Amino acid sequence: MESAAPKPVQIAELRRMREAGEKIACLTCYDASFALVEDRAGVDVVLIGDSMGMVIHGGNTTTPVSVADIVYHSKCVAPFLKRAFLIADLPFLSYATLERALDASQRAMQEGGAKMVKLEGGREQTSIVEYLAVRGVPVCAHLGLRPQFVHKMGAMKVQGRDEAAAEEMLQDARMLVDAGADMLLLECVPSELGKRITQESRVPVIGIGAGHDVDGQILVLHDILNISPMVTIGRKPRFVKNYMTGGADIEAAIRAYVQEVKSGAYPAPEHCF
User: Fold this and answer.
1) Does residue 147 lie in a domain region?
2) What is the CATH number of the domain that holds 257?
3) Within a 10 A sphere around the Cβ of 216, how many other Cβ atoms?
4) 73 occurs within a structural domain
5) pTM of the prediction?
6) DSSP code for 107
7) pLDDT tens-digit series, residues 177-225
8) How are beta strands 216-219 and 205-208 bridged, if at all?
9) What's the structural domain count of the chain?
10) Mean pLDDT score of the chain
11) Catalytic entry in 187, 200, 260, 270
12) Which residues are annotated as a binding site for 3-methyl-2-oxobutanoate?
């Protein structure tokens, strides 16, 4: 007798996981083959990340990635996810105005098959988040290190280290959730700040270099497989762990990542700020 098909993860399930203290395992994905493997390995949330600009397209930043790129890769992934929840990045300047944000979101969801969009920025994005939310677009708001802002910020570095910056980020998180954000993503923030934001939040908080106390973790697929340009040239971010070490194959590596997120073994102290 065949086993029942897995129940697709939806926003309500992610909220239930948060409330139950069950960690949410997330990974980036860009094609059909890896979509099949990630879904089979138990990944809860898949992100069509603009990180493709570096790991797929070979660039130095995410800024050249277009809406068409996101839609194309999302269309490659979406049909092969039977369980995992699909989020698509809104790329650089695609949400510079309300109209552009709505158009990019419509394309990501209608053409690409995404169930949520992600955008970078703090309180300055609340009008965008609210505009999308009241029109039925689920939004993940990305705080902390924001790769699309690299040319403005000047460097990829940890954010929110001092108390003033931490308080500002806490307020940003509150305002974004009040505006209608269904999820928060924190990148490269001190563990204590990640904990504070998670404790105050009403929605799931996913971290990448944001400590152990967030509701879930996300990494770039190519980083955990030790094949991304950043890790191969010796610029591996602190929060990255190579899951190919000791792994029998790629699926085993992804399963190991999921298991360590679920058990709390990842991130270890050496992966945190």
Assistant:
1) yes
2) 3.20.20.60
3) 24
4) yes
5) 0.96
6) I
7) 999 999 999 999 999 999 999 999 999 999 999 999 999 999 999 999 9
8) parallel
9) 1
10) 95
11) 187
12) 50-51, 89, 118
- For residues 218 and 207, the answer to whether their CB atoms sit within 8 Å is yes
Q: With respect to residue 2, please indicate whether it lies within any of the assigned structural domains.
A: no
- Candidates 127, 53, 140; CA nearest to 96 is 127
Backbone angles phi, psi at 144, to 5 degrees: 90, -135
260 is catalytic: no
Question: What's the pLDDT tens digit per position in 38-50?
Answer: 999 999 999 999 9
Q: Which domain holds residue 84?
A: 11-271
Q: How far apart (Å, rounded) are the C-alpha atoms in residues 243 and 25?
A: 14
Q: Is the dihedral of CA 75, 26, 159, 105 positive or negative?
A: positive
Binding-site residues sit at 50-51, 89, 118, 120
Q: Return binding residues for Mg(2+).
A: 50, 89, 120
Inside any domain, residue 3: no
Q: φ and ψ at 60, to 5 degrees?
A: -100, -15
pLDDT for res 3? 63
